[in-house]
Amino acid sequence: MSEFKFEIVKKIGVLSVSGKGWEKSLNLVSWNERAPKYDLREWAPDGQTMGKGLTFTNEELRTLRDLLNGLEL
């Protein structure tokens, strides 16, 4: 299995924290030294282990924002 690199460029915010300390958060992350993308996933308390997540370009995040703003919660 090949290794990958990541760097959390900017921590934007935490949505929730599990009982075991894992944080579901939105961050700006550079994967394999590429341009950073917005990233939504769970991170272990050590910040080195992560769960599956979603990455978004600027345009995708704008579209998601617009979709969420249209919801009546």
Describe the structure.
It is built from one helix and four strands. It is an alpha+beta fold. The termini are far apart. It has a four-stranded antiparallel sheet.
Calculate Rg over CA atoms.
13 Å
Strand arrangement, largest sheet?
Answer: 1-2-3-4
* Major sheet summary line: 4 strands, antiparallel
Low-pLDDT residue spans: none
H-E order: EEEEH
Structural class: alpha+beta
Q: Outline, from the CA principal axes?
A: globular
What helical percentage do the residues reach? 10-25%
Number of beta strands: 4
- On the 0 to 100 scale, the average pLDDT is 95
Count of individual helical segments: 1
The N- and C-terminal alpha carbons lie at a distance of: 42 Å
| Beta-strand proportion | over 45%
Offer a few descriptive terms.
globular, single chain, four-stranded antiparallel beta sheet, alpha+beta, 73 residues
Kindly summarize this structure in a few lines.
Helix content is 16%, strand content 48%. It is of the alpha+beta class and 73 residues long.
Question: How do the strands and helices of this protein lay out in sequence?
Answer:
Layout: E1 6-17, E2 23-31, E3 37-43, E4 50-56, H1 58-69
Antiparallel strand pairs: 1-2, 2-3, 3-4
